[in-house]
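Feature request, filed as a ticket because there's no other form

It would be nice if the structure record came with a short human-readable summary line next to the tokens. Right now we just get the raw output. Example of a typical job, pasted below so the devs can see what we mean:
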Amino acid sequence: MQAAISQVYHGRLAALPPDDAKGHWELVLFLDRFAMQKEGNQLADHILKKINKNHPETNQRFGRVLYEGKWEDKDMAEMAMARRDESSHIAGMTPRQREVYNTVESTKKNKGALGFEYLDMGSDDMPYLIFVQKSKQYAAESALSEFSEVLGHLYKLFYAQYSHKFDLTDLKEEVMVVWVYDSRETYMRESQAPPIARGHYNPADQQVQTFNESSQRYEVIFHEGVHQLIDRITTKKGGKSGNMFWFTEGIATYFETFKRDQNLDFVLGAVASGSWLPNIKAAIRSTPPLFVPLERFVSLVYAQAFTEFPPQLIGGLLYPEAWSLVHFFYNYDNGKYRSKFEDYFKAECMGLGGKEKFAEIFGDVKAIQTEWIGYVSALK
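Raw output as currently delivered:
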């Protein structure tokens, strides 16, 4: 039976013109009726290669689909359609949405092995893009919610404190990345942070990095987040932030040492707990005094502090002195220097901070040092 069918097939094939795609296709269907699929596929392949590569029925036989005028393998066509849809989606994004997309894709490529969830706070008119490493110890979605709450409080508090007093650049169209690792060990390994750090802000990549520790979450995010906010505001205004150590760390520690009122609202200006106040008081009382004289302290460029002072003095003396100086400017003599400090704040946001600007705004540095010593000595 099959021999007779084969004889009929070859006879019909020989009678066909070599470029007759329709006739060849009818022979493919003839072979299919008699379960001669191998021979049918061979003939169909001949149609595409020798007669008409765009023959619809033959392409469909091999699972190909028509995509943008060309017959493609289905998988390739689906990939091309996905790329086209993705490109169309990206083209319809706002600049901020596009930056979020690119940041997420870059993070998948560079840190995807860590495993993470992310949250964009842009829908709340806030600039933050938070990445939280997944862990068996906590739910990443819950951690995202908790850190977004902290960052939301910081952003609102910062703008409530300063936006009505001088022009702050609106950052809601920015993308400000915060990375939360699952543990101190991972944080240290991935960020190369110093051993004592609980978090840090890196101006090079403009990211805050920390780890998921609940005990001082607000303090760490408020401190490092202020660095991030001021850096972004300053760079958008064309300046260079992080210029003077006393201001950079003074304002960050001022936010870090908040308190909560009876309504659980945040109140800035609390007296620092822990060792800062005792340390700066001890430095003032020492004979000779161990604090950095203000004429030198207010001229100390940020990076300079880390080359001229050992780590134990930076944390044990310079941070307390910076905190106490900002606290003094806000609270001494019913806020005598508050408006002057905010004038200096404006200068820092323009990248114009420094010893000369300090003297221009505040006046006699030695006289201020005398007042500051008396104020800190009386703090409790």
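Something like this underneath would help us a lot:
Residues 98-230 form a domain with the Glutaredoxin fold (CATH 3.40.30.160).
The chain has three domains: 2-61, 98-230, 266-378.
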